[in-house]
Structures are given as structure tokens and as C-alpha cells.
Amino acid sequence: MRRKLRVAAYAVCVRDGQILLARSPCPDGTHEWVLPGGGAEHGEDPCDTVRREVTEETGYRIEVTGLLGVDSARHTVRGGRLRRLTDHHGVRIVYEGEVVGGALRNEVGGSTDLAAWQDLDAVPGLTRVPLVDVALRLWRERPATGRPAPAQGPLPRQVNGERPHPGHPRSTP
Question: Are 20 and 61 in contact (CB under 8 A)?
Fold first, then answer.
């Protein structure tokens, strides 16, 4: 079995109760929302990766304002010309970012086709990749380990889309 490791960096950019997301087309013609970000080039620092990817996918320039955590995902797929099994391992570094320039635009000829600000309260109703939920939990919980506790149900609601301050209840009724 072949083994493949991929390192990627993603940004959680939140302002005014909205999160910046990109839409990715699926092979079956549907779409799913993703965090702006993607794979690191060989030798590229992950902070540079996330800034480059956010600009490519959304048109915005960001400042990385914090490291939220690391997510690791592993799966086995059969593919390629010889239909060989490949053990894929993705290490996804999740940063917090702040938009500091540029203008919102859609990527042309890339992995996404639309960039948009989405209300935080609307995220649970979007068709999205699981990393969006993981990243929002990291952003809200700020775990010291950089890994969220096991999920206990849907994402908590936030007052005015802002994360709670440490020591305060994590959700509102």
C-alpha cells in the first residue's frame, strides 16, 4: 500500500458575526462549503501557505493572528491507473486570520468557485466539509492542546456571532 502525507493550512476569519468560506464543487455536481486554505508547497511555511491560499480563493489578504490547532485525518482510497490502495494522511493546521486588504472575489480555475461571508448561525444548515465544524470549535473553545474535546452535538449558538470569553458559558439558549 502506498502512503501519502499532505500538510495544509486553513484560516478562520470571522467579523461582524460572519465567517469567510469558499465553495468547492463536488464531482457529482453539488457544492460544499470549505474554509479558505489548502496544501502547502514543498518548503513553504504553513503561515505563508494560509495567506497565499486565502488570497487565491477569496481575493483577501490576511494577517495570521493566532494558531487555533491541528486536525489530523486519515483514510484509505483505491485509485490511479493501477487502482492501488493509498493510505492518505492529512495534517491540517488551523489559524485565526484577520482581513487586512484586498477585495472579495471568486477564484477562477482553482479548487473553489465562490467566496462569501456566511452568518455563523447559518453554518449548521450549510452543506460543508467536517473541517468547518472542527475549526469553529477550535475558534470558540481555544483548547490548550489545540484539539477540541469530542463533539457533544451541534455547534453551540453564539451571541452576535462572537466567541464566548474564557470562563463564560459556551452556548446560549
Answer: no
